[in-house]
Design goal:
Topoisomerase, domain 3; Topoisomerase II, domain 5; EC 5.6.2.2; 882 residues; Gyrase A, domain 2; 4 domains; 44 strands; 27% helix; four-stranded mixed β-sheet; 19 helices; alpha+beta
Length: 882
């Protein structure tokens, strides 16, 4: 028999309807963050429970068990065990760019270690976590009943900062998922302010402020395409690479990992590297150690024959040291899931803050008007104090007194005479001012001390201030521009207090864009040490000094690894603009090429980074010479009309067309064939028609025509350019310049400049003529180069001291002179390298007068050698020629 209340329905329709209801419940009320405050309901309820417990800094931390218990019992009835992981996640600095919870105790680790039980750990809100709930008590957001309707909870937080963009978020719903990348607080605030100023701003214009994700673990994003995609459409994928540095500890090379990609388990990464070593995929690794504390430091020891750059590339290829991150900017907007672009997300936040400020202003206006109403009544009552005291005294009860006061009235003119602002309240009837219920209650509660003249003046001042506040609040509500200005001002306060520098670097993928368009072509000083540490420093960091100064600290060199090992010293120093190319020639005759801006930039006293982080050098290779190729604004720098001119230690020279080095592979190419026992000394760029000067350590010089030396291929060995005597060898190669002189510098800090005409033109292969009178006082010749009167020099010593001087301060002398003092040296210190400085307008403007005696880092005036030091010559010395 059929039951009257039972209906037959198709099972597929019931399943479809039930599943859709379930899906929407999961999407809206559980799994996805709200676009306005960036929080999922579980996160919001935990933070609100902490708000109810007043866990704001600097108050003490409270047991997480209490926080989770209150959250579960009052707002989120799903058990403390599922609430605690959410609380922990909001406290982990490697998971959130700016954590919302301040932890105390074991909250897990980046290796995946679990946190301690909630009964052992404690927490409170961070400052930023507290700012999410700013002004919540001022009717800025709606409240709804909790699950059992005993209490109420906020639907959304006021969110004084854009949490969704700054901390990102993840969530897996039914049929959709969120994976938001974190961003930098300073950049996001700047982007929001820019969009407020220009609502029609484009994504490209926003990207000038918001560069891209800023992950809490640092690392590097490789490629701009994925960033542009998700900023424009809400979806995109990026490659993230950890930070690694190649380091030579004296006995062998090491790869040191200092940052890992976001979301990668460090312990699992180390385990995977160990597995690859065991599987012979990375046989060059001899050991791996995790030496991390609060900062990541994983040390990978390499075998002696290993090429560090090759091993590092394989680590990127086979492990999570390089991984991908897919962005899906899906969030709840107006109770619907929505895929957001960057501009959409910012617009939603601006609209949310606009509503918050309007609601807060209305609340403050209501409160101010109520207080003004009380003070109006109080001012009127005080003006006729005796009558009111009499009324209250004759009343039999409080209610009777209040009734008598409400029946009492003033003329509007009398009220205005007392400074009362009549705004048409319901209390004004028939031209008379009557007291309201609020005013009558307030008058009855009047305290005796308020009857003094001083208190009456204070009430009047307070009333006048309230009227000004009311006028200002009404102006805010009337003008949209004021609301938007308040949004920007409040965000600016948050940015200034809690903004931190960007942690994640963003670099262009190979071939993606012309990265040089994004980099200023500024002049730099590049230094390379004997042990292969390289850096670049802006020329503006070096102050121009007078000849003979002691100089400023130019580079910290690393100490020797062992007592037997010689301490590091600067071996190469030269100037180059950021867009220029650098050709690195090794002692084995190979050449590598990189742009100057790729060289790590450091301060004047920075120690530099191993050049093996820059070049894929072989184990036996060492940098012997570096050539700068100037990058023209238009055109190809690899000209067929220019030549690379080589000089080796034994006097062999060779020239090869520059265009032959145009396509240099990452692993380098052969540049010159060098015999065993010989080594490359210097490389210069010529036009094929210059005159070449070769200078030896004992002060001999050959000046010959470049045209006497035919161009050869990259694999050729070359021809003899100068024949040094026994025990002598070539130290410098330079080309003659009609407007320049030849500057020769000795290791004891003496130098001189001599016109090229004083050196006889000889055939290549000659023994040469004397270019400096080498004595014990001068020391051996260190370097020689062509300089002009207006050039500036940078001198670097074996201990890392540097001095920048004008060539014009060095007096011109004969070729056989000893020269004048260029720099004062400490005991045991020698000149190591000399280079001309590329002077630009900014550098000249920043240069200062010769040093005064008021700097602790500079030599005092009495230590500067006089520029009038006499020239010393030996007239009887004979020239040696071919």
């Amino acid at each position: 028999m059929d039951e009257p209340n039972i209906k037959s329905i198709p099972v597929e329709e019931e399943l479809k309807g039930s599943f859709l209801d379930y899906s929407m419940s999961v999407i809206i009320s559980r799994a996805l963050p709200d676009v306005r405050d960036g929080l999922k309901p579980s996160q919001r309820r935990i933070l609100y429970a902490m708000h109810e417990l007043s866990l704001y800094p600097p108050k003490k931390h409270m047991k997480c068990a209490k926080i989770c218990g209150d959250t579960s019992g009052n707002y989120h009835p799903h058990g403390e065990a599922v609430i605690y992981p959410t609380l922990v996640n909001m406290a982990q600095p490697w998971g959130m760019r700016d954590p919302l919870v301040d932890p105390q105790g074991n909250f897990g680790s980046v290796e995946g270690d679990p946190p301690a039980a909630m009964r052992y750990t404690e927490a409170r809100l961070t400052h930023l976590g507290g700012h999410l709930m700013d002004d919540m008590e001022k009717d800025t957001v709606d409240f709804v009943p909790n699950y059992d309707e005993r209490l109420t909870e906020p639907v959304v937080f006021p969110a004084a900062f854009p949490n969704l963009l700054i901390n990102g978020g993840t969530g897996i719903a039914v049929g959709m998922a969120t994976n938001m990348a974190p961003h930098n607080l300073i950049e996001v605030v700047n982007g929001i302010c820019a969009q407020i100023d220009n609502p029609n701003i484009t994504i490209d214009e926003l990207r000038e402020h918001i560069l891209g994700p800023d992950f809490p673990t640092g690392c590097t994003i490789r490629g701009m395409t994925g960033i542009r995609d998700y900023l424009e459409t809400g979806r995109g994928s990026m490659r993230i690479r950890g930070h690694a540095e190649i380091f030579d500890n004296g006995s062998r090379e090491q790869i040191i990992l200092t940052a890992i990609p976001y979301g990668v388990n460090r312990a699992e990464l180390c385990k995977r590297i160990g597995e690859l070593v065991a599987e012979k995929v990375l046989p060059e690794i001899s050991a791996i150690r995790d030496e991390s504390d609060e900062n990541t430091r994983v040390v990978i020891d390499l075998k002696r024959e290993a090429r560090a750059q090759v091993v590092l590339n394989n680590l990127y290829k086979h492990t999570a040291l390089e991984t991908s991150f897919s962005v899906n900017m899906l969030a709840i907007d107006n109770r619907r899931p929505r895929l957001l672009s960057l501009k959409d997300a910012i617009s939603c936040y601006i609209e949310h803050r606009r509503e918050i400020i309007i609601r807060r202003t209305r609340y403050l206006l209501r409160q101010a008007e109520i207080e003004a109403e009380k003070l109006e009544g109080l001012l009127l009552a005080i003006s006729r104090l005796d009558e009111f005291i009499q009324m209250i005294r004759e009343s039999g009860s409080r209610d009777e007194a209040e009734a008598k006061i409400r029946a009492y009235s003033f003329t509007v003119e009398a009220a205005q005479a007392l400074g009362i602002l009549i705004r048409g309240q319901p209390s004004v009837r028939d031209g008379r001012y009557y007291f309201t219920e609020v005013q009558s209650k307030h008058i009855v509660e009047l305290r005796l001390y308020q009857l003094t003249a001083l208190e009456r003046d204070k009430v009047k001042r307070n009333y006048d201030d309230l009227l000004a506040t009311i006028e200002d609040l009404m102006d805010i509500l009337a003008k949209e521009s004021r609301v938007l200005t308040i949004i920007k001002d409040e965000l600016g306060v948050i940015k200034n207090k809690y903004g931190t520098p960007r942690l994640t670097q963003i670099v262009a993928a190979e071939g993606e864009i012309n990265i040089t368009d994004l980099i200023a072509n500024a002049p730099n000083i590049v230094t390379i040490t004997h042990r292969g540490f390289i850096k670049r420093t802006s020329t503006l960091e070096y102050r121009l000094q007078g000849r003979g100064g002691k100089g400023l600290k130019g580079m910290e060199t690393r100490e020797a690894a062992t007592e037997e090992d010689k301490a590091d010293f600067v071996e190469h120093l030269f100037t180059a603009s950021a867009h220029d190319y650098l050709m690195f020639f090794t002692n084995t005759g190979r050449v590598y090429t990189e742009r100057v801006y790729v060289v790590p930039e450091m301060g004047r006293t920075g120690k530099g980074r191993s050049i093996k982080n820059l070049l894929n050098l072989r184990a036996e290779e060492k940098i012997a010479a570096v050539l700068r190729i100037e990058a023209p604004e238009d055109g190809d720098p690899w000209s067929e009309d220019q030549f690379v001119f080589f000089a080796t230690k034994d006097g062999t020279v060779k020239k090869t067309a520059l265009v032959g080095f145009k396509n240099i592979r990452k692993d380098g190419i052969n540049a010159v064939n060098i015999e065993e026992g010989n080594e490359l000394i210097q490389v210069i760029l010529t036009n094929g028609e210059k005159q070449i000067c070769l200078i030896t350590r004992n002060g001999m010089c050959v000046r010959c025509k470049e045209s006497d030396i035919r161009a050869m291929g990259r694999g050729a060995m070359g021809v003899m350019g100068i024949r040094p005597s026994e025990g002598d060898y070539v130290v410098s190669l330079t080309a003659e310049d009609e407007s320049a002189q030849l500057l020769v510098v000795s290791e004891n800090g003496l130098g001189k400049r001599t016109p090229f005409d004083e050196y006889r033109l000889t055939n290549r292969g000659a023994k040469g003529v004397k270019t400096m009178n080498v004595t014990d006082k001068t020391g051996k010749v260190v370097a020689a180069l062509a300089v002009g009167e207006t050039d500036e020099l940078m001198l670097m010593t074996s201990k890392g001291q540097s001095v920048r001087i004008r060539v014009g301060d060095i007096r011109e002398t004969g070729r056989n002179a000893q020269g004048v003092k260029l720099m004062n040296l400490a005991a045991g210190e020698t000149i190591q390298d000399v280079a001309t400085v590329i002077a630009d307008e900014e550098a000249v403007a920043a240069a200062v007068a010769p040093v005064e005696a008021d700097s602790a880092e500079e030599v005092s005036s009495d230590e500067v050698v006089s520029t009038e030091e006499p020239e010393i010559e030996e007239s009887g010395a004979e020239d040696e020629t071919e």
